[in-house]
Specification:
By secondary structure, this protein is of the alpha+beta class. The protein has 2 domains: about 60 residues, Arc Repressor Mutant, subunit A; about 70 residues, no CATH class. The protein contains 6 helices and 5 strands, in the order ααααβααββββ. Strands 1-4-5 form a 3-stranded antiparallel β-sheet, with helices on one face. A two-stranded antiparallel ribbon has the order 2-3. A hairpin with a 5-residue loop joins strand 4 and strand 5. Helix 3 packs across helix 4. The chain is globular and about 50 Å long. It starts with a helix and ends with a strand. About 15% of the residues are buried.
Length: about 140
C-alpha cells in the first residue's frame, strides 16, 4: 500500500485501527506491537482526528457542488450501478479515471458482503470527486 493509498493516515495508525476494529483493546494492541498503551491511545486519537478532517472536507466539497454524490439503491445490479456512476459523472462533466470494468471491481470490493447474485443487498453511497476519483461516502 502506498502512502497515497493511506491518505491522511500513517501505516502505523492504519495497523492500530485495524486491530481495534478486530476487537483488540488498547492494552492488547500495545503488547502485540511492543509499544505503550499511551502510544496506542495517541495514535488512535490522531487517526480519528484525521478521519474527521477528511470527512468534513468531503462534506464541504459536496455542499459546494464540486463533488457528486451517487446513491446506488438496494437491489441494483452491479453493472447498472457502474452505468449510473458513469452517467452521473458525465452529467456533471467529471472525467472518471476508471473504465466500467474497474468501476465494477471497485464496487464489488467495497460491497463487503452486501451483494447477492450480483445485486446490492443494501443502499451504497458513493462520491465522485472533481478529479474523477470514486470513493465511498
Amino acid at each position: 500500500m502506498t502512502k497515497q493509498d493511506l491518505g491522511l493516515l500513517t501505516p502505523r495508525q492504519l495497523e492500530i485501527l485495524k486491530l481495534a476494529s478486530e476487537g483488540f483493546t488498547q492494552a492488547d494492541i500495545a503488547e502485540k506491537l511492543h509499544t505503550s498503551r499511551q502510544n496506542v491511545y495517541v495514535l488512535i486519537t490522531r487517526a480519528r482526528r484525521n478521519i474527521a478532517k477528511a470527512q468534513r472536507t468531503i462534506l464541504l466539497i459536496q455542499n459546494l457542488g464540486i463533488a457528486v454524490r451517487v446513491r446506488i439503491p438496494k437491489d441494483t445490479h452491479i453493472l447498472d450501478a457502474a452505468k449510473e456512476v458513469i452517467f452521473k459523472a458525465d452529467k456533471e462533466r467529471i472525467r472518471i479515471k476508471d473504465d466500467a470494468l474497474s468501476i465494477t471491481a471497485f464496487l464489488r470490493s467495497r460491497a463487503r458482503g452486501n451483494m447477492e447474485s450480483g445485486r446490492f443487498t443494501k443502499d451504497l453511497d458513493l462520491i465522485i470527486m472533481p478529479n474523477g476519483e470514486i470513493m465511498l461516502a
